[in-house]
Amino acid sequence: MTPRARTAVFFAGAAGIAVLLLLALPGMPSFGLGAHPYGARAVRAGTDQDTPNIIASVNFDQRALDTVGEELILFAAALGAVVLLRAVRDERLRAGGDLRHGPADVFDALRLTGALLLPVTLVVGAYVVANGYSSPGGGFQGGVVLASALHLVYLAGDYPALKRLRPIPPFEVAESSAAALFVVSALAAGALTATERGARTVPWLNAVVGVEVACGFVIVLARFFEQALEIRPRRKEAR
Questions:
Q1: What average pLDDT does this structure show over 88-117?
Q2: Domain-located, residue 9
Q3: Helix, strand or coil for residue 36?
Q4: What is the DSSP string of 206-229?
Q5: Can you tell me the mean pLDDT for 60-66?
Q6: Is 25 within a domain?
Q7: How far apart (Å, rounded) are the C-alpha atoms in residues 77 and 72?
Q8: Domain that holds residue 225
Q9: Which residues cross the membrane (predicted)?
């Protein structure tokens, strides 16, 4: 696409959004009023659908299409990291370097702290995901905690152990599968009644989001680590 064509597409989209905003403005409540019609309707809909957490009801039922978009954004970010940070023609994976042959020289206290916090952080992340539909938290937050837990191994100075702990291909399969499951489940939920959607689909969708977010962050960070620690230009290898 030429620069002129891209500019034309941008202005066409911007004009459409501007028209929609102008049409929506007259229907908005006056500024400064104490009434919040959206909040009242969201709470009423959440309680009618038997969802114990109103935020989860909004994320996974009332505005599920927004959540689908957020899932696809993270999926696109992981895919972009895989494509952009791969080894190219003048680069290659090199064996060598302290972080690749064994643990780095760090304080024993730091290594012990990482080893002790890893299982605790994994449990906390799993708890946040599992209870996100009924309490503060959820798949997004719990997924980030789970991904962060694995990288405590790297902070403790053991990059080879991190590589063994999170082989990338299974995480790529899990992330893409979870994103597809979320879209299919969200579409299938439209055939259920309001109460069935809240009681049956919200916990499942929350768990799928946790898997997709955790795997997505692991993949993105893995590609950045690979680019920083393993990929080297060929011309430097020849010296």
A1: 66
A2: no
A3: coil
A4: HHHHHHHHHHHHHHHHHHHHHHHH
A5: 78
A6: no
A7: 8
A8: 52-237
A9: 72-88, 109-130, 142-161, 173-192, 204-225
